[in-house]
Specification:
The chain is mostly helical and 317 residues long. It has two domains: 240 residues, Alpha-lytic protease prodomain-like, CATH 1.20.1510.10; 67 residues, Cation efflux protein, cytoplasmic domain (Alpha-Beta Plaits). It contains eight helices and three strands. It has a three-stranded mixed β-sheet. Helix 1 runs antiparallel to helix 4, helix 2 runs antiparallel to helix 3 and helix 3 packs antiparallel against helix 6.
């Protein structure tokens, strides 16, 4: 067999990861906005001697780090999408970026909870006017960042990608849609900061005008619990992708319904996520009158977004 005759069965495994995702540019813009705010607050804090501004500037630095990880995940996945060392492309870099961001969120929640608990036991002196200005500034920046990120959910654009293992033509393949975990992580980081600012403003106003000094640490504990819950949810979703958990029931049931016709039965089925909204499948079909693998592949609806299908066929004795 000539080499060119094998081209029909050859394919790459980029699955659209070589194209910029919807959240990449937005994340880069937010990184720039946050970095500029960080530098401005640190410079103003050093110039005016304001510890509140200086502390918030340092706090912004942690968010620049977290958002920088998200931006790096996008760029790395795109630049290495065709690297043959990655068996199914770099789609899972998205989940890895989200998982890393979720871990950082957990650290933030732990720090918020600890600091708030300490303040409940040992209340400190607070410069209310200065602190309120910083909190309002932080809220404005993070509200703008949250608006830019568009709610933290994006549908990845993967385009049409036909290949040898899946006999659907290029035009038959729909755009893959799924949660962008990297963008979700970036959004949760700015949302965490915005939430912290809102709670701080409420607590500071209550303490300044009503003498409710205990409100600040209590709001800190409430914020820490909310952030911990967000972190837990994102950790769970991204871990499922990284550990190749089976695809949702609707996808697997769709494969079964498509393939189990007549006397054909599925003996083994594995469907897992390889990129946002994109799946791979390994199927073992048993039949008294088996058909060629290509005919079974052609039965799988393109709407299931299964971009890589390997099918083995066995004759039932």
């Amino acid at each position: 067999m000539h080499t060119h005759e094998l081209d029909r069965w050859k394919h790459d495994h980029a699955f659209g990861q070589d194209r910029p995702m919807a959240g990449e540019r937005r994340t880069l813009v937010v990184v720039a906005v946050t970095a500029v705010t960080m530098v401005a607050e640190i410079a103003a804090g050093l110039w005016t001697g304001s510890m509140a501004l200086l502390a918030d500037g340092v706090h912004m630095a942690s968010h620049v780090l977290a958002l920088g990880i998200a931006a790096f995940a996008y760029i790395y996945a795109r630049r290495h999408a065709h690297d043959p060392r990655y068996s199914f492309g770099t789609g899972k870099v998205n989940a890895l970026g989200g998982f890393t961001g979720a871990l950082l969120l957990a650290v933030v929640a732990l720090g918020m909870g600890w600091e708030s608990a300490v303040r409940l036991v040992e209340p400190g002196t607070v410069a209310y006017d200065e602190a309120i200005v910083v909190a309002v500034l932080g809220l404005a920046v993070n509200a703008a960042s949250a608006f830019i990120l568009g709610g933290g959910r994006a549908h990845g654009h993967h385009g049409h990608h036909g290949h040898g293992h899946d006999d659907h033509g290029d035009d038959a393949l729909p755009h893959g849609h799924g949660e962008d975990h990297t963008l979700r992580s970036a959004y949760l980081h700015v949302l965490t900061d915005a939430l912290t600012s809102v709670l701080a403003i409420v607590a500071l106003l209550g303490a300044k005008y009503a003498g409710l000094t205990w409100l600040d640490p209590v709001m800190g504990v409430v914020g820490a619990l909310l952030v911990a819950n967000w972190s837990r949810g994102l950790l769970g979703r991204t871990a499922q992708v990284l550990l190749d958990r089976q695809a949702p029931d609707a996808v697997r049931d769709g494969v079964r319904a498509a393939l189990e016709q007549g006397g054909d039965r599925i003996a083994d089925l594995h469907v897992w996520s390889i990129a946002p909204g994109t799946y791979a499948a390994v199927v073992s079909v048993v039949s008294h009158a088996p058909l060629p693998p290509d005919e079974y592949r052609a039965r799988i609806p393109a709407s299931l977004a299964i971009r890589h299908v390997s099918i083995e066929v066995h004759r039932c004795r």
